[in-house]
Amino acid sequence: MGRAINRLSASGVKTASVGKHADGGGLWLVKREDGGAQWVLRVTVHGRRREMGLGAYPDRSLKEAREVADTWRAVARQGLDPIKERERQRREAARNIHMLADIALDAFESRKAELKGDGKAGRWFSPLELHVLPKLGRVPVADIDQKDIRDTLAPIWHTKAATAEKAMSRLTIVLRHAAALGLEVDLQATEKAKALLGRQRHTVTNVPSLPWQDVPAFYQSLGGSITELALRLLILTGARSGPLRNIHVEQIDGDVWTIPADDMKGRKGATKEFRVPLSAEAQRVIAEARKFARDGFLFPGAKRGVISDMTMTALMDRRGMKERPHGFRTSLRVWLAEATNAPHDVAEMCISHMVGSKTVQAYKRTDFLEQRRALMERWSEAVSKKNSASRIFQMAR
């Protein structure tokens, strides 16, 4: 019995001739004509002979081959197929390596080139980071199913519907990214999770806005910091926060600011840029802001990039206001409706709203620039003229 196993010696293995050499207990050394050699283990499971490779020699020594063979013989004695068991262990190891958090970060890095502004800076990633990864980040992406997603997003599905939708959308992208990497994932998991969560019950609320009558006092309370100048220009132009915070000095030509098509909301892939007329007051604000410009951006952030949307919101919060920067677009639109005779299409264009279907827009070759120029000059005079507010608006500097 002692000669039944461990028949080979280290020196004998080294000088073995071409062919198969038994060490006993099913362990064989297979020497090839090209000089290479392979360890092979033969076992019988449920009457079926199985042959599995244990690695190459000399990468795996005789001693190591015997130890590995002992491990898989023990598996076979339990009635398990060692080859299938090894594959199962490999799949398990692969799942443990590809955690959702790692795949999500990789997906984010891959998409950065097509993201703009805050998205590139991390805003795209934040719904995942705040609402998904704390619970599922360390779960192997291959193991995530619709019930995991449902349980994760259920707490905010109805109370923070928009945020939950963004998180679900981002998770769908991450799962697709995982599939592109060759991982086995359920690409329908998010859709199944939506079915389990049910239709969202929420009421859409408008962004709080300041009555236009109170805008002059607020405007006049603003100082000359980067954030305050950005708010001033936001009010004067009726622009959205994103394009304004990312405004580049090269986009300004005299009294016209041209917003690139890619920065216009709702125009993905559009080829049409948008011109914004700049009033005398708007040009004055821009001139004051130029002294802060960095890397060509008029409103740079403290360390890098540009100021964030939350920077302007925080200023209004500190003043005890419930209104938000985006609400000044509403203030302007209501002023246009109540204090001017601006035609509907012109008023809508003042806040860069496209009127009519895509077909109608295709044939409408004007952006009413001159008519808007006159209206925006009146708006600027109204908000910047001292004592023009009909109410006293107390603001702490």
From TrEMBL:
Annotated Tyr recombinase domain residues: 205-376
Pfam families xrefs: Arm-DNA-bind_3 (PF13356), Phage_int_M (PF22022), Phage_integrase (PF00589)
Swiss-Prot/TrEMBL keywords: DNA integration, DNA recombination, DNA-binding
GO biological process, one term: DNA recombination
Matching PROSITE patterns: TYR_RECOMBINASE
Entry's Gene Ontology molecular function annotations: DNA binding
Top-level taxon of origin: Bacteria
Family listed: Belongs to the 'phage' integrase family.
Protein name stated in the entry: Phage integrase family protein
Organism in which the protein naturally occurs: Roseovarius lutimaris
